[in-house]
UniProtKB/TrEMBL annotation:
The lineage of its organism: Bacteria, Pseudomonadati, Pseudomonadota, Gammaproteobacteria, Nevskiales. It comes from Hydrocarboniphaga daqingensis. It holds the Pfam family 3HCDH. This is enoyl-CoA hydratase. Residues 496-592 form the 3-hydroxyacyl-CoA dehydrogenase C-terminal domain. Its EC number is 4.2.1.17.
Length: 717
């Protein structure tokens, strides 16, 4: 009946038609402009055939439809707000055409159906779902709201409260949750899905299911009286705003859209959705979040290409147990790669195994793992005291104490025992990989693999190569990190690597602000308002003053022109000398006490203000919010550009994603370079000039000046 690039329609027995999504030359189905147009054409063909009694909607892929084509979205978002709203309304006519067919319709959801994919499912009268499938609306995570009728059909099917919870949270939902709120009408094992969907369709054709009433329910206004409406929406707006925070407007906007359209029929409600969708799509937040999504896809593509030359890792090992070693072992084993955990002390091995067991127990508590599966994972971690157990491993991650002499000794020792093709990676946050490689006879098999703490939560792994590291070794570690569920970013060796090299200029900006009179509590509040999960004083306490002092020394030696030791005492020096190391010993800039849940709770400590007088010759001054933000962010932006100029990373995307995944750079700002683009380089240069008296840390690079003069941006491509 119809054949396109993404959709085909065929007739089945019993005057039933099947509309199948099967995107040619692609492993997944997604909605792009062509697919939306094909949907309208397919609907027209179905309507024109007067013999059709019902429609079954299916997918030939393992997924149903993953959503809209975000790469195409980026181009559409260059339109004006009015044009974008018009585009969304026009696209909705394809979904309306399916919804308005003169016979019942059923979708068989065989796999993931997200965003536009799930909105397609909602346009049919009934939905039957595989018990392994997942559905949902992830749009708010991109700074937008559903644009293909999700805010209209979902609340009319499931009730406003359920729709708000799904849409404003942006999370994927399993089959049981979908059935519970009536987002789907049935759940069945995958093998029986088609039969179940056809049976549902037969019942509708026979009149045993009132498909016309269901359709009117979706197309009519929400059945809420004035008091119910006020209670649902006003309560939801307050709750959602609290969850989303002030910098993410899409979740609250989704509630407002559902509320505004509650008394309208489908067509008027879709106009309200389209207008709000277009408004959000033009925000800097949406631009940043969509940019992150595209950057993440770019990183995944790079990691996937590495597997072509990577050596397979069937057995891994970690040297050094403890919290870090246990975290690495857990992450490797839980993702299917068995691992040997070696230490010189039984007590350390116990600590490492306890860490892995604790993490697995939490997964069992959250019902993400069965006890049997957790036991299997734990048994794939083998604690050993002897190197003899490591002879057959493919990769070794060294995670011993952060001391170059100790690391060199351990690395040389293990190299002499393992096979000549075994890859050895050092988990270090600051020690030169080039220097460590001098201890090895096969430096081509050696590189850095910097995990961030806590290992099981932090998504980033820096893969650091030295001058003699082979491409095969780099690719193998990238592939191994990816298999662990991490996002690897390949980094050229330099002091601080990528993330710490960029983070510490931010800290130096903080120390300078304190020196010139800023109140550390106010600084934290301003930078948290900017979007950081914690301000710089609080972050110093979490990192630990001893750790920061050590990394600061490494960077001072590496970049003396801008990160060299200050002639006067800094806030860090004061805290370090007074053994106020932060959370690890209960006192830093803040004082820490354990809350009822066992977590450290901070309070401002008057003694900190007294001690900081030694690093604050002018005393406290009322520094403006703008100055605080600029003094912190400018050094970070400039150092990120220096990393690009020095070839430490290849692309702006990798630099920005390193900051987002490694240190929690505010995602809605997109990373340091995306943030610079949003302000504009000419404005950045003006700000740099204002703080030129503070030294090299605030001096823009020649490349920045050139780009500003030529009107270029970091993401101009």
């Amino acid at each position: 009946m119809f054949q396109g690039q993404s959709i085909r329609v065929t007739k089945l027995d019993g005057d039933i038609a099947e509309l199948c999504f099967d995107r040619k030359e692609d492993a997944i189905n997604k909605f792009d402009k062509n697919t939306v147009e094909e949907l309208a054409a397919a609907a027209a063909a179905l309507k024109a055939d007067g013999s059709i009694k019902g429609l079954l909607v299916t997918s030939a892929k393992d997924v149903f439809i993953v959503g809209a084509d975000i790469t195409e979205f980026g181009k559409n978002f260059q339109m004006s707000e009015e044009e974008l709203a018009g585009w969304a309304l026009n696209a909705n006519q394809s979904f309306n055409a399916i919804e308005d067919l003169p016979f019942p319709t059923v979708t068989a959801i065989n796999g993931i159906a997200l965003g536009g994919g799930f909105e397609m499912c909602l346009s049919t009268d009934y939905r039957v779902m595989s018990d392994s499938a997942q559905v949902g609306f992830p749009e708010v995570k991109l700074g937008i709201i559903p644009g293909f009728g999700g805010t209209v059909r979902m609340p009319r099917l499931t009730g406003a409260d359920n729709a708000i919870e799904w849409i404003a949270a942006g999370t994927q939902q399993k089959a049981a949750a979908a059935l519970k709120v009536h987002a789907v009408d049935g759940v069945t094992p995958a093998a029986k899905l088609r039969d179940a969907a056809l049976r549902t369709l037969s019942l509708a054709i026979e009149g045993k299911l009132d498909w016309k009433a269901r359709r009117e329910q979706k197309k009519g206004p929400l059945k809420l009286n004035q008091i119910e409406s006020m209670m649902v929406f006003e309560t939801a707006k307050g709750f959602v705003a609290g969850q989303a925070g002030p910098n993410m407007p899409a979740p609250v906007e989704s509630v407002k859209v559902i509320q505004k359209a509650a008394s309208k029929g489908r067509d008027d409600a879709l106009k309200i959705e389209a207008a709000a969708f277009a408004k959000l799509a033009k925000t800097a937040v949406a631009d940043a979040l969509i940019g992150i999504f595209l950057n993440d896809q770019f990183l995944k593509k790079k990691a996937k290409s590495a597997t072509k030359i990577a050596k397979p890792v069937k057995q891994a090992a970690v040297l050094g147990a403890g919290i870090m070693g246990g975290g690495i072992a857990y992450t490797s084993a839980s993702r299917g790669t068995p691992i040997v955990m070696k230490d010189i002390a039984e007590k350390a091995l116990d600590l490492g195994m306890n860490e892995a067991n604790k993490l697995l127990s939490k997964e069992v508590e959250r019902k993400r793992l069965t006890p049997e599966k957790a036991g299997k994972v734990l048994s794939s971690i083998r604690p050993v005291l002897s190197y003899d157990e490591m002879k057959g491993v493919d990769i070794i991650v060294e995670a011993v104490v952060e001391n170059p002499k100790v690391k060199k000794s351990v690395l040389a020792e293990v190299e002499g025992i393992v096979g000549e093709n075994t890859i050895i990676a050092s988990n270090t946050s600051s020690i030169s990989i080039e220097d460590l490689s001098t201890a090895l006879k096969r430096p081509e098999n050696f590189l850095g693999m910097h995990f961030f703490n806590p290992v099981h939560r932090m998504p980033l792994v820096e893969v650091i190569y030295a001058s003699k590291t082979s491409k095969e070794a780099i690719a193998s570690v990238v592939a191994y990190a990816s298999s662990m569920g991490k996002t690897p970013i390949v980094v050229k060796n330099c002091p601080g690597f990528l993330v710490n090299r960029i983070l510490f200029p931010y800290f130096f900006g903080f120390f300078g602000a304190i020196r010139d009179g800023a109140d550390f509590v106010k600084v934290d509040k301003v930078m948290e308002k900017f979007g950081w999960p914690m301000g710089p004083a609080y972050l110093q306490d979490v990192v630990g003053m001893d750790t920061s002092h050590h990394v600061g020394d490494v960077l001072a030696e590496g970049y003396p022109d801008r990160m060299g030791k200050a002639p006067e005492k800094t806030a860090l020096d004061v805290m370090y000398e007074n053994k106020r190391f932060g959370q690890k010993n209960g006192v830093g800039f803040y004082k820490y006490e354990t809350d009822p849940k066992g977590k450290p709770k901070k309070t401002a400590d008057p003694e900190s203000y007294e001690l900081l007088k030694a690093a604050q010759p002018k005393g406290l001054v009322d520094m403006s919010d703008e100055e605080i933000m600029d003094r912190h962010m400018l050094p970070m932006i400039i150092e990120t550009v220096r990393c690009l100029d020095d070839g430490i990373v290849e692309t702006p995307a990798e630099a920005d994603m390193g900051l987002i995944y490694g240190i929690g750079f505010p995602p809605f700002r997109g990373g340091a370079l995306k943030y610079a683009d949003s302000i504009g380089l000419p404005a950045i240069l003006e700000k740099c000039a204002k703080f030129a008296h503070l030294g090299k840390l605030y001096e823009p690079t020649e490349s920045m000046k050139k780009m500003a003069a030529e009107g270029k941006t970091f993401y101009s491509k």
